[in-house]
Specification:
Blueprint: H1 11-34, H2 41-55, E1 58-59, E2 76-80, E3 83-85, E4 99-108, E5 111-120, H3 126-144, H4 152-165, E6 169-170, E7 176-178, E8 185-189, E9 206-209, E10 212-214, E11 220-222, E12 229-231, E13 237-239, E14 242-247, E15 250-253
Antiparallel strand pairs: 1-4, 2-4, 3-12, 4-5, 6-10, 7-8, 7-9, 9-14, 10-13, 11-12, 14-15
Helix pairs in contact: 1-2, 3-4
Bound molecules: 2-amino-4-trifluoromethylsulfanyl-butyric acid (MF3) and cobalt (II) ion.
2-amino-4-trifluoromethylsulfanyl-butyric acid binds near residues 77, 114, 116, 208 and 210.
C-alpha cells in the first residue's frame, strides 16, 4: 500500500499547534465546570462557540465534510451515553447519571487543535465511572508509546490491551490521526492493531490520539442525522483525545492544561 507522507512539523509550528490546543484545553475545562443536570448540549456548543471567537480562532468542525455527508453543523461534538462520537449538539437536556463526550476543534494561525473528554453528569453509576477511567487511562498509556523510533501500532496496541483487559471493546470505524494544517493528516491511528501502515515514529510528528471505547460490542451504527454514531447494542461509549507532538524527549501533550 502506498501511503501519503507524514508531515513533520518544526518547533515553531509545534508552538502554534500548542496555542491552538491550549484554547481547546481552556474550553474543555470550562465545560467541565458547566456540565450539570439540566443543561442542553446546545448550550455547551454556544459556550464553546463564544470562547473560540474570543480566542481569535475559528471552529474547525463547523462546515467540515466527511465523505459525502452533509457539512457538520456545530462547533463541538456532544455524544451522550450510547452515542460514540459526532453527536450533534441541540435541545437534548443532560440528566443526572449521563455521560457526555465533548470534542472540540479550533483553527488558529493556520493550524488545527483537536481534543476531547467525556464528562460525568452529576453522580454516575460505578459502571460508567469505570468505563471513563479505563478509556482515559488507555489514552495516557498510548501517549507513553509515542517516542522517536517506536512503531505507530505500539500506540494502537497500548489502547487495545488496556481496554480489552478490562472487558471493553475498541471502536473500529473511527481512528485517531495526524494533525497539523489539516485536521486529518496521515497517518491514521487505529485503536487496535494488525491493520494498515506501521511506520516508525519520528521527532516532529504531531498526532491526535483518540480512544473510543465501548462497554459492550465494538459495533456502531449511524443515526439518520448522518453524523451521530451510536453503539449497535445501546451500551455506553466513552472518548478521550489529546493532540501530541513527538519530541526527542518523548511525547509532548499539546492539549494538556
Ligand atoms: N476529533 C474528531 C476527529 O478527529 C472530530 C471531527 S468532528 C467533525 O475526527 F465534525 F469535524 F468531523
Ligand atoms: Co480527532
Amino acid at each position: 500500500m502506498k501511503e501519503n507522507p507524514i508531515i513533520l512539523k518544526t518547533p515553531r509550528e509545534i508552538d502554534i499547534l500548542r496555542e491552538a490546543n491550549q484554547i481547546i484545553a481552556g474550553i474543555l475545562d470550562k465545560l467541565a465546570q458547566t456540565v450539570e443536570p439540566g443543561i442542553t448540549t446546545g448550550e455547551l456548543d454556544k459556550i464553546a462557540s463564544s470562547l473560540i471567537k474570543a480566542s481569535g480562532g475559528k471552529p474547525a468542525f463547523k462546515g467540515y465534510r466527511m465523505s459525502n455527508r452533509k457539512p457538520y453543523p456545530a462547533c463541538i461534538c456532544s455524544s451522550v451515553n450510547e452515542e460514540v462520537v459526532h453527536g450533534i449538539p441541540g435541545s437534548r437536556v443532560l440528566k443526572e447519571g449521563d455521560i457526555v463526550g465533548v470534542d472540540v476543534g479550533v483553527v488558529y494561525k493556520g493550524f488545527v487543535g483537536d481534543a476531547a473528554r467525556t464528562y460525568a453528569v452529576g453522580a454516575i453509576s460505578d459502571e460508567a465511572r469505570q468505563l471513563l477511567k479505563i478509556t482515559e487511562e488507555s489514552l495516557y498509556q498510548a501517549i507513553e508509546q509515542a517516542v522517536p523510533g517506536a512503531r505507530l501500532q505500539q500506540i494502537s496496541a497500548a489502547v487495545q490491551t488496556h481496554v480489552e483487559s478490562h472487558g471493553y471493546s475498541v471502536v473500529r470505524d473511527f481512528v485517531g490521526h495526524g494533525v497539523g494544517r489539516n485536521m486529518h493528516e496521515p497517518p491514521q491511528i487505529p485503536n487496535y492493531t494488525g491493520v494498515g501502515w506501521n511506520p516508525r515514529l519520528q521527532v516532529g510528528m504531531t498526532l491526535a490520539i483518540e480512544p473510543m471505547v465501548n462497554e459492550g460490542s465494538w459495533r456502531v451504527k449511524m443515526l439518520a442525522d448522518e453524523w451521530t454514531a451510536v453503539t449497535a447494542d445501546g451500551k455506553l461509549s466513552a472518548h478521550f483525545e489529546h493532540s501530541i507532538a513527538i519530541t526527542a524527549n518523548g511525547p509532548d501533550i499539546l492539549s494538556r492544561i
